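@channel anyone free to eyeball this complex?
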Amino acid sequence: MDETGINGTEARRGWMSLLARAPERRLMALWDAFSPRPEFNWLRRPETGAVMVRGRMGGTGAPFNLGEMTVTRCSLALAEGAVGHGYVQGRGAARAEAAALIDALMQTEAGGAVRAAILDPLEEAMQTARTARAAKAAATKVDFFTLVRGED
Amino acid sequence: MYVAVKGGERAIENAHAWLAEERRGNGDVAELSLAQIREQLSLAVNRVMAEGSLYDPDLAALAIKQARGDLIEAIFLIRAYRTTLPRFGATKPVDTGAMDCDRRISATFKDAPGGQVLGPTFDYTHRLLDFKLAAEGGESLEAPKAAPRHQPTPHITEFLAGEDIIQREPESEAAPGDLTRQPMSFPAGRDIRLQSLTRGDEGFLLGLAYSTQRGYARNHAFVGELRIGTVAVEMEIPELGFAIEIGEVELTECETVNQFKGSKTEPPQFTRGYGLVFGQTERKAISMALVDRALRWRELGEDDLGAAAQDEEFVLSHSDNIQATGFLEHIKLPHYVDFQSELELVRKLRREAGADATREAAE
Amino acid sequence: MTATATTAIAGGFSDPAIESARAFRAAMNVMARPGEIRDLDMARPPAPLSAAAGTLLLTLCDPETGVHLAGACDSAEMRGWLAFHTGAPVVSADRAGFAVGRWADLLPLDRFRIGTPEYPDRSATLIVELEALQQAGASLRGPGIKDSAALSLPDPAALAGNAMLYPLGLDFFFTCGGRIAALPRSTQISEG
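replying in thread with the prediction:
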């Protein structure tokens, strides 16, 4: 995979974002079922920290600091050389490790298999959950109807 | 006289042991799990995240359990914990216009694109106790569904901005000040004010906001828009050289539209107050927007009416419930020596007053 | 891409909590005792940076401290290494919280922030890479020094000028291979 190209970057951005937001149980179940598991060396062991989340004044104006959120990250290198970075929301060291390994594998020939076994099902599950929530919101949308018009 | 004393270790240890027992309550009753707190007391979790200034529902649930439901104590625990975390960086400003809205209402425009979506609200409930909830083993309830909307929901104020009848938010990418890194100084910028308000005490801000409605620094506010939902959080990753989403947060955003007759520097137009808070925290977000608007008198060229909500130093210095409770509660801790000197002083004054009275009586 | 990526992110702390605490202690001690030289060589930064300077950067820098890379220190590899391990942004001299490079590359000193009367701490700390570091040369007096100490300073006159700015001014670390010494703005300097 050409990860230096625009498309490569956009694709990597996509799967890293997906992994960061993935629900723990679902991600770990899919990852635990995946084989073969690659050998790797740590470049940075999982560490939990905070990032400052910013908002904008009035939604569109100048930025301000809203508060922090927890993030866990790690980096590793596969025996064959690919470097994987894992960034996940919350305090899940195992989840960060899985995310980094998946990121590394996606840069190798195993990428297609990883996408089919992990990323696609994950994306589908997350989309389903999102749609279900949007459907409940839609059911609470007010339908106005005019009772009386005050003109003759 | 100064007497240094030491002791109380055993009493403190035993007090902590009793605290742990009381926290658990009656052992015949099932223990609360963190997942139960997170899922079933989610609005308490949201308040702890907002005022603890750390978005992590599991940690907030733990703090609530440890604090026996005392939310300010739970916020204290979260504030203490967050100081132990390394800061990886700051995110790009979240795009609330791209929010997946659970709720979105406007008190100013009935027919806004996207509509009035009530979401899981307490509004229109009758506030009658529901004794069905007191019975255990209630079945899991599924809310009705309708065809979901996939387009983004535009901000209501954007429509007014098109007519140029509302004050525009100046665009900027300047790095905002951070009151957790640099001490606050006055006058504070709006960036610092908003950061302070979003982590401020809900009750304090509610009281201040209410005072503006009752006429102290009156600025008649409409809720132009209130929305609750999730937004993606993006951050530039230095080692990658590009930004990725590192998670998503639930936010409540409130934008008020306030009538404004114009001032020496500004034409008549609508002005805006802004509230943005972690979690589903509607009362807090509306309060924040009202207080934000009241604090903007200087930049809008309005008069200082001497109202509490207009006094930046008063508001920002007293909105933090952890600072407040820390200072307030410390006075119950031993002040034996301080008080000893007060006692001596009052005795001396009384002796002198007594001597004066005796002398006057003699004259 | 992959090969350079690995080089850029190797050479960090192997046990960050312990090593950064030890390194911080060493940095604090040399700053508290101007003229004292200690070993500091946990990190392996890209060339030409010394182990001591690299360890200092890992210990003191984070996304909120702008770092100025002077002269040959400013390389793509160095930027990548700093980004991965600290997240610190690379900035111009006038915005730097820390600057690193050889003495000649760091000059002129008046490019750096010296703090304000309200916040003297809002100033830059310079990490100066030296060919040799020994307890000989300029004579140092002041807080943290019993009687006097000696240190091989690159330009005693310029550094004495910095001390005149006290309580404003710059603070210095001097690094050479795996060794470190320091000179806070509070130290008085006379030619040895």
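from a first look: The first helix of chain A runs from residue 6 to 21.
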